[in-house]
Specification:
heterodimer; A: alpha+beta; SH3 type barrels; B: Rossmann fold; 7-stranded mixed beta sheet; two-stranded antiparallel ribbon; 24 helices
Amino acid sequence: MTLADLLPGESGIIQEVDTEPLLQQRLLDLGLLPGTHIQARFRGRRGDPVAYMVRGTVLALRLSTAKDVIVHPLGRSL
Amino acid sequence: MLQRYLIALAGNPNTGKSTVFNKLTGLKQHTGNWPGKTVVLAQGSYTYQGHTYEIYDLPGTYSLSASSPEEEVARDFICSGQPQVTVVVVDATCLERNLHLVLQITQLTTSVIVCLNLMDEAKRQNMVLDVHQLEEELGVPVIPTTATTSEGLQALQDAIARVTHGALRPQPRSLQLDQEHLASSFYTHAERIADQVVANSQQGCDFSARLDKVVTSRHLSIPLMLGLLASILWITIVGANYPSDLLAHLFFQLEDLLTTLFIKLGSPAWLHGALIFGMFRGLAWVVSVMLPPMAIFFPLFTLLEDFGYLPRLAFNLDGLFQKAGAHGKQSLTMAMGFGCNAAGIIAARIIDSPRERLLAILTNNFVPCNGRFPMLIVMGTIMASSVVGAQMGGCVAALVVLVALVFSVLATLMISKLLTSTVLRGELSYFILELPPYRRPQIGTVLVRSFLDRALSVLWRAVIVAAPCGLLTWILANITFHDITLLGHLSNWLQPLGQAMGLDGVVLLGFILGLPANEIVIPIIFMGYLSQGSLMEVQGLAAIQDVLVANGWTWLTALNFMIFTIFHWPCGTTLLTIKKETGSLKWTLLSILLPTAFGITICVVLTKIVDILYVGCS
């Protein structure tokens, strides 16, 4: 399952970030590392981009990027 | 001679770094056209206990892995060994991610001070931070601050002084790092330290989360955006009337005074004409008609930026920009273009991919800048008051300008799409946008700063551009050749094109002579219209309207004028900036051609359609 599949309110644990090197580095710098807790917050008007809460910050990613982040789903949490 | 000490200011974006910088340096700094944003290395200085400290505000970065130009700049500067001290501004409410950068910096230099900022926000979220523990863990001084109220800044200056003079020696702890997985090992340390230092941490801010639900919602986001913009425009239009009249009145009196002086000194009529009717009136026009809307619009827009609305705007518009094949950050550079196109073009440096950056540069001029807003506002007000009367005029004028703005954004998207499917084809690069918590805008600071910055720079431009242009126009309007003035010859020559566009030769000439700065286009047009060859005294909008109607203007002329105001070549400053940023004459020429062709086409087609309808009706 990928980050793009999380519905608003659902959380997951990042397992793997698999994408082009520059983006990978950027995501790592922002703290999207394997083992990190991440929660989907809200979606853009047409479902893209999506805002996620990670390490106390809200980050918006385009779906094309979110698809490259593999997560282990934890279900809904608040 | 006094020794100057170099201080680097580093930190994540959205940590209040710019506020720290502003508060430390006051007005002694050189920034870009857009106050509050760090695009290029801003530099400032302050004096503390007899020593002068030179501060370099590095670009906000999340890391120093040098994977973007900003990170490279920040890294190179810190590594260069030039700064005596590197101050890292840290968001106290988001310690973990900020520590990631702090730890990276302490690996590069030992002379580090942590400025633990936004302590008031942390308190509001009931977070408790153990500052001593943090100092212990990092091995460098940690100064808690709330930069917005200047709390702790004295202590920060003190720490900077003591580290600079060796009274305090930071000794960063050495870290066990896994070179293979640098980012994760930095984060492991950051997590551990944050866990020990922070008690009662919550995941983000409730207020922001609730507001974001509304601001980004499917049905409300766009109406809310338009409503905000409309309110700003309305306040600008209504508010600009009074200072405008006041300034016009003052200039009028000053002109009388100067004229009396000229007569007393017995100066020849041509000198009086050139200096007073040419230069002085050109200047008076720019200042009294153009300055008030700018001085109101700009601070209001900056307040919205300060509040944290712009990232949400980018979030809401990203779907559209994605469809146009543009980078998500282009909506931010576009928003900056509303302030100043040259600033928006410089801001395009935040886009890494050269292709998408070029796209942002080429399309920036499609939104009207601060210098063109007053043109739209003046024309919108005249149109509105002639149709619905002055009572409702403000509201209708705001609506007219709002429609013009929405149209300019749609045009930006259309041209972006056109370019990305022709000359700028390529893969879309990634886009990550941080949505920082909303913050209470520092109303006082914003008002003072943006007013001072704007007012002073506009006045300066008025002096160096409007005055000589006024003089030139006066000369053109007063030298005759075959019984027609030079101005008349030029505008006659432009007349056919002007007519096809539903305008006239004088208007086109105004735009051409107004190349140095859009602020002077309307004044030049008026000089052209008035038979005596000099600008009329600055009077209210009603007088402006009378002159226009007398010269054959209809609602269609006003509409075409607004269209061409938005879509024509970039001003001189912007062109120089484009040339500098792209380093290419070809792209600079395209940036002239694109909006000009677009504007002329729309005006010609619109005029033709109205012509046909009109003939059909009668």
